[in-house]
Amino acid sequence: MYYGADYYPEHWPEERWAQDAQMMREAGFNVVRMAEFAWTRMEPREGEFNFGWLDDAIALMAEHGIESVLGTPTAAPPAWIMDAYPEAALVTEDGRVMTYGSRRNYCPSSGVYRVHSQRIVAAMAEHYADNPHVIAWQIDNEFGGRCYCADCQAGFQQWLRERYGTLDAMNAAWGTEFWSHIYTAWEQVPLPWEATRLHNPSLALNYRRFMSDTYADYQRLQIEILRELAPDQPISHNLMGFGYPNLDYFDLAADLDFVTWDNYPRFMGTPNLSNRGLAHDTMRGLKNKPFWVMEQQGGPTGNAVVNATPRPGEIPFWAWQAIAHGADGIVFFRWRTARFGAEEYWHGILDHHGIPSRRYREVKEMGEALERIGDKLDGSRVAGDVAMLLSYDSRFAFQNQPHNPHLDYPDIFQRLYRSVWERNLGTQIVSPEAELDGFELVIAPMLYVMDEEIAQRLRDYVRNGGTLVVTCRTGVTDMDNGIVDAKLPGLLAEMCGVTVEEYDSLDDGRTVALKGAGELAHAGGAGLAWADVLALEGAEVLARYDADYYAGEPAITVNRYGAGRAVYVGTVPDSDMAGALLGWLAETTGVESAIQAPAGVEVTERVSDEGRFLFLLNGTAQEQVVDLGEGGEERTRGESVSGEIKLEPLGVRVVQRA
Ligand code: GLA
Ligand code: ZN
Q1: Residues, CB within 5 angstroms of ligand 2 (ion)
Q2: pLDDT at 72
Q3: pTM, 2 dp
């Protein structure tokens, strides 16, 4: 297990470094991440490199038993590059060229920026390839943002040429007959600039795919250099969890050796533990293997504003939750709060003054518990027989056509995840291309963009005995984002045994009462955001609308198909209805929590050749009692436990069982 902090030696006098390293060692740290914004320090002028300070910092850390992850510094371009090459600046949706300052202000298509990036990455790789204390790389920092510059437009046109081959094929696929948008040269294809309004949905979706591909491509440029010059050091990038909407993270992760991400649970508002669980599961799911948290909140967040401070116990609790969901590394952001710069209010573990206080003591205490666990958890997988299918294509399509302000792809995903999470049914997040055999239950929220290949995989899964849940807005468009020529849910209609007769967009935020039926007769609740009025084509009713002109019509159905079942949810179920549905699904598929625990106690299980590790996390403000039954070895404290155990508020236990 790696445990440490993001460290910026360049922000502090060198005389202080040894004291920092000593305090880190005492907190049980064994890793720091450094250098990801230090380009000008490392290359003050083109081709002139200065790594001495970083060599010293790495060596000093190593003397204290602390290894280093190095970031390539390309997220924050030096002024000397951007001044000489203004064409490398990112252009915003409204056509404005980003002025210098801040960060993430470069265009990932820019040829000249790529050349500069290659040079610094190659210099770092050459310099550090053989340093045994550099254990991994982080590329850039939190890729994101979209660029609308001339280079990106040319890149998009080339990307389209490769995708469609001929203009005729593209025109046909996009329906450019509409409003006379027929393109007669690739150079005519625009970007979906803000000033254009009402874009062709095919163009809009493809631009989003292109931009996502462009970041993956820019990342690959750096990966290729590192793989060649520093082949023994694994490569990562710090992603932004489930929440970040603009990159296809499955694609971005495919080229990495391992995924890391940045977790700030108390940034603008109170922490939502179920959303945190989803974020961790998503990051694990990208490569279906353990990940790191490369930045975990270590103090109050803030830029212009200053947010609430983490409550006592929260910082270690969030870190344990990450480990419970498959993290093999926890790195706190940041070691010490900067005394200057745009983030002088984004606090680290130490405050500006650098004197240890409560947050340091909490982190140190966790370090002691982690030392007791040792490397037992490393590489173990997180148990769970439920899959949720995450489609970035569908998410991108809704960004162009959100339908109404209440129908939100991430929101419905988070709601359904929450109902699974509340029951502590382990969940794997998978892409639409994933193999589904082996899952007991698959939930695919608003799988809007679909082709026959995806549909076929879902049908096979159900035919072979799986239980699949789909929702409103499923199978609506083809891969070009044109609407299918069939009754919805299109390619899945036969399997679902229903068709959508008509739909009602609940655009003003009104809700529709729902009344359980059949096997869900006991259930009640409401539908939000959208209401499909369903015609039965063989399915049985699980809930009906209980209001509006479609009162009495089916809202949720289940259909037997082959050896399995397909559930169609024609609305966004509120927590009552989603809870009842998930309860019924858990019961009828036989998926269950590793152990029964009171509400608010999260349970996960990590499994390896070493054994089964049961995580119990009391996310409530009250003491909770959990009955372990036979029990086992509690690893954070190093004691045998069995029967009923008490968990203090924000208390965590890791029990190794046979
Ligand atoms: C992100 C970045 C960090 C830092 C923190 C705090 O996660 O990766 O560089 O800016 O946020 O704002
Ligand atoms: Zn650009």
Answers
A1: 107, 109, 147, 149, 151-152
A2: 99
A3: 0.98
